[in-house]
Amino acid sequence: MSPCRKCEAKCCRYFALQLDTPRTKEDFEKIRWYLAHKGVTVFVDKRKWFLDVSNECRFLGKDHRCLIYDKRPLVCREHSPYECERDTSDFEHELTFNTLEELDLYLDRRFRRKKS
Question: In angstroms, how far is CA 81 from the centroid of its own chain?
Answer without folding.
Answer: 18
